[in-house]
Amino acid sequence: MASDTHRSAYKRILLKLSGEALLGARSYGIDPDVLAGYAREIETIVERGIEVAVVIGGGNIFRGVRTAHAGMTRAHADYMGMLATMINAMALQDALEQAGLQTRLQSSIKMEEIAEPFIRRRAIRHLEKGRVVIFGAGTGNPYFTTDTAAALRALEIEADALLKGTRVAGIFSADPEADPDAKMYDEIAGDEVIRRDLRIMDITAFTLCRESKLPILVFNVNEPGNLQSIVSGERIGTVVHWNENPAAAT
């Protein structure tokens, strides 16, 4: 299929998906309709020649931090959370392949029967060949979130942007699901995000992006067509920028 990247805003992206989003209307596990929807959205941009890597969380199955707070050793809980991300990654891989896409699953923890080990150059080569690369098992280390894994992998593969898919339209001044008066920002400076303590990502992930000036775009991944609109350059969601003296968001 002919590439359409000359009319796209990005050549290579890292898409971060939350595990909780896979719940759909369920209280636990994976909603196959949500999974199929994500596969369709990714397919639309791969067909345009966009190189796509994905990091997906595991909160629909297991949350390490929450369990650690309930009494389990944090490191042990985090490793269990990494395994949960692999379940979601394998499910997404299957959905993408059923949609006709070529994929590769790479894991930060050795699981030779189901995934390749994470090797930066190999991941980049897969992307160059048009394969969707899914990164599982977080960073492979406890005490780091999948947000941090997404930022790290995005930098390692030299992605043009980190796109964080959420269930709300973008970054708001407060939780829009709790505060109907919350204001959405079309764009916001990274330092302003920190000053306002908006918590769109954990601080380690955010710092990695800030130091390398990697653009972050937060958008509603559950709205059909949003992903394709973003790579076309349309203003969807909220852009976090890293200008030296950005105008403060109001």
CATH topology: the name is Carbamate kinase
Total helical segments: 8
- How much is the radius of gyration in Å? 17 Å
The helix content is 25-40%
Give, in spatial order, the strands making up the sheet with the most strands: 4-3-5-2-1-6-10-11-9
Tell me, briefly, the overall form: globular
Mean pLDDT: 90
Could you explain the architecture of this structure?
- With 250 residues, the protein is of the alpha/beta class.
- The protein has one domain: Acetylglutamate kinase-like (Carbamate kinase), CATH 3.40.1160.
- It is 35% helix and 18% strand.
- It contains 8 helices and 11 strands.
- The strands form 2 sheets. It has a 9-stranded mixed β-sheet, sandwiched between helices. It has a two-stranded antiparallel sheet with strand order 7-8.
- Strand 1, helix 1 (32-46) and strand 2 (51-56) form a beta-alpha-beta unit.
- It starts with 11 loop residues before the first strand and ends in a 9-residue tail after the last strand.
- The relative contact order is 0.16.
